Amino acid sequence: MNPNLRISEFPNLRRLASTYRDLDVYKKAFETSLDIHRLTLDFPKIEQYGGMADQMRRASKGICANLAEGHARQQSSKAEFRRFTLIALGSSQEMQVWIEYGLSLDYIDPETASGLIDAYDHITKMLQSLLRKS
User: Fold this and answer.
1) What predicted TM-score, i.e. pTM, was given to this entire model?
2) Residue 134: its pLDDT value, please?
3) Dist. CA 25–CA 31, nearest whole Å
4) Domain 25-133 -> CATH class
5) CB-based contacts of 103: which residues, under 8 Å, 6+ apart?
6) Which residue, 21, 18, 14, 55, is CA-closest to 37?
7) Integer Cα distance of 2 and 65 in angstroms
8) Which has the closest alpha carbon to 55: 95, 114, 107, 115?
9) pLDDT tens track for 9-50
10) Which of 46, 65, 76, 129 is most buried when burial is the number of CB atoms within 10 A of its CB?
11) 23 secondary structure, DSSP code
């Protein structure tokens, strides 16, 4: 599979998918998690399994997974949606810490780190807005 393909390039998949994929915050978090995954593949070997690269991949993907699970559970409980959205919010803020570590350890260049911090700041604000609306 081509790593440069984006889910947005498959309109039929979107129509068949659950509506969590239609959330703008999900789309932003998904695209950013792909960037994180690609970036961390170049981290030192010591960071790959159980280290910082692994933690970053888990936290970035966890935002998407928690939005999807919360969306599915909201049919029976709005409180469950809020709970999973709060978990996603925590993971978004966690990512900013990991990026700061990556920058400080020279695993991430300053320009990339700045762009990722901005992306997760935006995701955090989107999640906060989603929580206010729920």
Assistant:
1) 0.84
2) 80
3) 10
4) mainly alpha
5) 109, 110, 113
6) 55
7) 22
8) 95
9) 555 443 333 678 889 999 999 999 999 999 999 999 999 988
10) 65
11) -
Q: What's the full length of the chain, in residues?
A: 134
Q: Using only the alpha carbons of the chain, give its radius of gyration.
A: 15
| Residue type, position 24, single letter | D
Cβ 28 vs Cβ 122: under 8 Å: yes
In the predicted structure, residue 77 carries a pLDDT above the cut 60: yes
Q: What DSSP string describes 43-90?
A: S-GGGTSSSHHHHHHHHHHHHHHHHHHHHHHTTT-HHHHHHHHHHHHH
Q: What angle do CA 27, 32, 37 make, to 5 degrees?
A: 130
Q: Are 21 and 27 in contact (CB under 8 A)?
A: yes
Joined tokens for residue 65: 């997974």
**Residue reference for tokens 């998690």:** 33
